[in-house]
Amino acid sequence: MSKAGLEYLFNQYVQNNCSPDEQKALMELLSMPENETVLSALVAELLEKDTEPEFEMTARQGESLLKNILQAGKMTPVVTKNKRIVFGTWWRVAAAVLLLFAGAAYWTFQKPARNADRPGRDVKVRADILPGGNRALLTMSGGARILLDSARNGEIAQQGGVRIRKQGGMLVYETPRSVEAGSLVYYNEISTPRGGQFEIVLSDGTKVWLNAASSLRYPAAFTGDLRQVELTGEGYFEVAANRQKPFQVLAREMKVNVLGTHFNVMAYEDEDLIRTSLLEGSVKITEGKANGVLMPGQQAVVKGNEENIVIENADLSGAVAWKNGLFQFENADIRTIMREISRWYDVEIVYAGKVPQEKLEGKISKKANLSEILQILEFSNIQCKVEGKKLIIL
């Protein structure tokens, strides 16, 4: 395609006017190394036209950004809907580029005040840190442990007539025969480390996705009149319907009672709030003497150990973004963002000075390396450096 054709498609995308076919064509053209010179000229031209810049981009940042563009093949782009980049022209270009090729679906920021005491600096990353993956430890009744990262696919154990099978990043419990009420109960626990996630199919067919630094305690087979599991951290549940046996999740001091539904529970110990977000069905939330019933599209918020439940409308896409391979933030502060980064990249967060007050919103692929995340943060004047397993906020 001619330079004019590439320029037309690029400008259409920057202005959010690209059709799906045009966006596909643009992605293919920008992934071709022979278009690097044309693309560089287009970015430079748009930067020169910007009469009201919101940020300043150093030459080194621009060079790094261009490299990210040309490394696009390893990232999976996510198409956004009804989202517009609203600040300076160069930022629209940067966001469009990052969307296509650095793993960011979109990334917009609240306009930060210029801070003379925190001038722009290059992100200091001595050794890149890779994203997390399918990692978990299975602890069986009796104390036996199986590291699922390295366990073979297929049957890995049997317990009380239940076959336990690993299938890639998923652990499956199979009951070839019915389990009688009153049978001996074998409790297992699956736990993910920082930088790990895993999926499990319980013996009743319920599916659970565990986020990083989380654990689920459950019986190998459900007996009696209640299916009860214990969660720490974060998990997404698709509960198999069984009106004769309600399903119950214990998370810290909170109880979630369901019959059959899809919901997400976030109950990390280092978070002030416990959030339960409902996608399908209905659930009853109990915290001490307080209780409430959720309908689809709502979430229950419990603060610490307070016996008070607040029910509000939920951003469901944000609640389950982690399960779909994304970081997603809506008006999030730096500490909230860094807690998620810390869990997924297994790094310790250190604040060297005053905590930045910027509020950020956007989506970034969880497949991105840490350096790519930090580069995006730098565009909003969030300066970081990596020293070993420490991520230092300057």
Give your account of this protein's structure.
Helix 4 runs parallel beside helix 5. A hairpin with a 2-residue loop joins strand 14 and strand 15. The radius of gyration is 24 Å and the shape is globular. It is built from eight helices and 26 strands. About 20% of the residues have low confidence. The protein has a 19-stranded mixed sheet that branches. Strands 2-25-26-23 form a four-stranded mixed sheet, covered by helices on one side. It starts with a helix and ends with a strand. With 394 residues, it is an alpha+beta fold. 22% of the residues lie in helices and 34% in strands.
What's the layout of helices and strands?
Layout: H1 3-14, H2 20-30, H3 36-49, H4 59-70, H5 89-101, E1 106-109, E2 124-125, E3 133-134, E4 137-139, E5 145-147, E6 154-159, E7 162-167, E8 170-174, E9 187-191, E10 196-201, E11 207-210, E12 215-219, E13 227-238, E14 247-251, E15 254-258, E16 262-267, E17 273-280, E18 283-287, E19 290-294, E20 298-303, E21 309-313, H6 316-319, E22 326-332, H7 334-345, E23 348-351, E24 360-365, H8 370-378, E25 384-387, E26 390-393
Parallel strand pairs: 2-25, 3-10, 8-10, 13-14, 23-26
Antiparallel strand pairs: 1-24, 4-5, 4-9, 6-7, 7-8, 9-12, 10-11, 11-13, 12-13, 13-16, 14-15, 15-18, 16-17, 17-20, 18-19, 20-21, 22-24, 25-26
Helix pairs in contact: 1-2, 4-5
